[in-house]
Amino acid sequence: NDSLDLILNTISAPHSIRTFLGLLRAKGTLVQLGAVATPVDFINVSLFKQRKSISGSFVGGLKSLQECVDYCVEKEIYPDIEIVDGSRIAEIYNILAEGNSSAVRYVLDIEASL
What we know:
Strand order of the largest sheet: 1-2-3
Shape: globular
Radius of gyration: 16 Å
Helix content: 25-40%
Largest sheet: 3 strands, parallel
Order of helices and strands: EHEHEHEHEH
Distance between the termini: 10 Å
């Protein structure tokens, strides 16, 4: 907890960001990439006390996203992902700091990490 400077949240389904905010250190930022159709819930006092930030960005639109997905399916382009729990954060951080030569996308399983 309280150890990450930046979280890029790509979850577009309704979810609580409270857990993510707890993972941020003071002055950390959570960036929501893509739109979530439901209101976001969090306790704003935790933001003020530790100067944490929430920002967001659309990533294209549904049409451009669908075109990209269709292209990838047509060309059989699939991401290499590895789902990891919090016990491997330091290891994954080192891999990413060294350039992630394997080009794997690491996905943190929050529930398995609690």
